[in-house]
Structure formats: C-alpha cells, structure tokens
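We emphasize that the prediction below concerns an isolated chain of 465 residues; any contacts that depend on oligomerization or on bound cofactors are therefore not represented. The input was used exactly as deposited, without trimming of termini.
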Amino acid sequence: MMRLTRPVVRFVGGAAALLIAFALLGTASAEVQASNFTATSADPSAIEFSVQVSGDPIASSTLSYRRASGPTSIGGDLPGEVPSRGTGVVTATLGTNNGTAYIPVGTRFTYQWILKTEGGDTIETEPQEFTFLDGRFDWQRLDQGGVTVYWYADRALAQSVLDASAGAVADMSALLDANIDFPITVVLYSGGDSGLAAQQPRGGVYDELSRTGGTRVAPDIVHVYDSLGLGWEDITRHEITHVVTAEAGDGPFTKMPSWLDEGLATYAQSNKGTRVAAVEAAIAGDNTLRLRNLNAPVNRADQIELFYGQSWRVVEYLIDTYGGDKMAELLATIKAGNTADQAFQDVYGFDQDGLYNEWRVSVGLEPIEFAPVVQATTTAPTEATRAPLTLPTSVSAGSSSSNGSTSGAAGDGGSGDSGTDVEVSPDDGGNGNVVTAAIIGAVTLVLAGGLGFFGLKLMRAKPQA
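Result of the prediction step, given as a token string:
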C-alpha cells in the first residue's frame, strides 16, 4: 500500500481548489440588460439615439450605424454618453444638417449599440431599424411598385405624387434601358418654407435668388418641396428621373455632364414652365450657352432657367433625331468609364462642341468655330446637381435622452422604439474572457506539470508497510 506524504497531499488539495476557482472565474459573465431603444428627430438637423441599460455598470458605449443608399450601404460609429453610475439611459447624437454633414430626411438606418462593461466585456445589442423623418410633422406613407411616399398634409396630393413617381421610373427606365432594383423614397413637403430646413444650403446669395422645387438628395431619396408653378407631378417626375439617369449613366469614375442629366429630367416633365421662354429668348438673341461650359450646373441664379431650358432642347433634339436607343447607348458608354466627349464621339460621331453646333443649326443659328479640345483618357466631371451625403465617423455625443414613440401611420417615422427588452451576454471575443482563458490555460499547464512530477516521484518511492 502506497501512502502520500503530507506535503504532497497539501499540494494536490491546493491545486484542485485553484483549478475550481479559475473554472468558476471563467464561467462568470457580465449581465447587461438593454431596452427601450429609441431614435428620434425633433427637426432635420439631428437624430437622438438612446438605450436604457441596467445590470453590470457600463464603462463606454458606441453607436454603430449603417444606411442604405440605393445599391450601396454606408455608415459610421458614434461615441455614446454613459451616465456616471454606469447604468441608465445611454445617448448619442448624430448631426444631419450642420454645415459639415448632410444626411437627408428619408434615410433608412440599421443601428446597434456596442457596450463595454467596467470588467472589460463587450456586448453588442440586436440591430434596430429606423427611418429618419422630420419630427415637426406627423408623417404617413403610401407605397406602390417599389416607391414609398412620406406625406403629412394632403393624401390626394400624395397619391398623385406616388403615381407620378412610379410612372417616371417606368417611362425613363424604358427610354434609358435602366434597371432600378432598389426601393425609392419620396419625402413630400407642403410647399412654402415647410421643407427649407431639410435642404442642404448651397450659398446665401444663391438661396435667396432661387427656389428649389425638389432635389434628389441621395441615390434612392427624392425631396419634393414646392410645385413652383410647374405642378407637383412634374417636379416629382423631374427628380425621379435623376434617380434613373444616375443608375443608367453614372459610373465609379465618370459621370454625365450636368446639362445631359438636367436635360433628361426636364424632358420627363409634361410642363416645362418658364424654361421654354428662356431658351427661346436666348435663341432669338443668339445668346445660347456652349454645352461644354455646362458640364457642371451654372452658378448664376439669372442663368438657371436658360440652363434647364437649353439642356432640355438639346436632349429633345438628340432623341427626336437619333432615337432613344442611341441615348441609352450614350449613357451606358459614359457609365463604362468614357468621358462625355469620348462617348459622344463613339455613339454619334461628334463631341459636345459638334453637337452644340448641330443643334444651333437646327434652330436657325450659325455654327461656331471652336479651338480643338485636348482629350483626357478619363475624367470625373464635377457633380454639383446632387447634394453630397456625408456620414461622419465620429460626432459629439448628446447629453439628453429621448423617449419618442413610433408614428402609427408612418410605421417607423417618429422613433425607432422597439418596445421590447433585450438581455445580452458578453461577446465571446471580449477582452475579459480572452484574458481569463489565457490565465486558466497557463495555470493548468503549471499544475499539470507539478502533479506529473510528484506522481513520478511517488511511483519510484519504496512502499511502506
């Protein structure tokens, strides 16, 4: 019979106790409850995100968000503000129209909170969905054929805007051989200054001298602010056409000239308004604008009507003379990476100056002799007709909490409140668990080596009677 000496017994007992202690440490985990997810906007300038946190104290928080933008998705991270006690309402504020960032009303978000406990564990909440709408109004929605119209004032007007949107998508997609395979959102204001706060400023003098009827503010979002005497339906058709032309003619490195883009959008209107008189006056006085100078929108408010009117007349001439198939081929050629002049030369046999002179002759004007233009192999023309969408990667966290509720009619317009409580456990990749696992592994190896050494020593010891 073999007996163990007291030192060996004490060592084995201590080792077992230590292993049990570390095992218990490894199975312990932080418990954090996250509930009452909200995302609210009092006006178009900012979104307030909040979440109620209880359980183990939180040391830091991050709001991670992404938004759909037509066929693409972009996003960023925001630092959250955590209460001093580590539990309670955690908040973050995303600026949406503050001079440095512009995120348009109508944007659809997916977001989640990333919470870190004081013990080093990382918790990720379930993703939440939210549609950013102007909190000054009680929004409702209408849907048809992949188009959603958000409205608050006149249901009959909203239905006519929805019909015009769906019709423009169908008509212009057929003309330009475009495939719009993503949902389109239209945000309809009631006219006057109601939508002014939702617009991205373009400059004090310009804004004072011009009025915006609508804007394509993102690849998949259109704002309609005012009829401008053209009719709500024509403003809508114009802006929806920009969605189609961008999909048909804008590539990653080359984009359509602005005159071509705006000419097609005006072509889609039934009523061209005062733009007809503007271009007729320019033709009568031989004051038309060289197309090459209209690759970006004009910056003079007194030339806006002529810019739109002449762009439309040139586009109309191209379609009437050469057919819609050639126009679709032109946009596809630009999208493939060719400059506008290269694309015109390949498809029609002339560049922009050649087109300008051909059109001038068609309206009774003499052609103009231009100096040869040196062609670049690739170009990315300035794109100023589309308000840029800039998502910051970090914004100062807000200090106030928000408890808005979801608007029944709009679905997710007023708030992103899910109305449910979620209990989440630490991420398996959290720092706390990684360190614990490493310590347990090291201690286990040391103890196993020690036990093996003493076991070998005991086997060699002489048995005692």
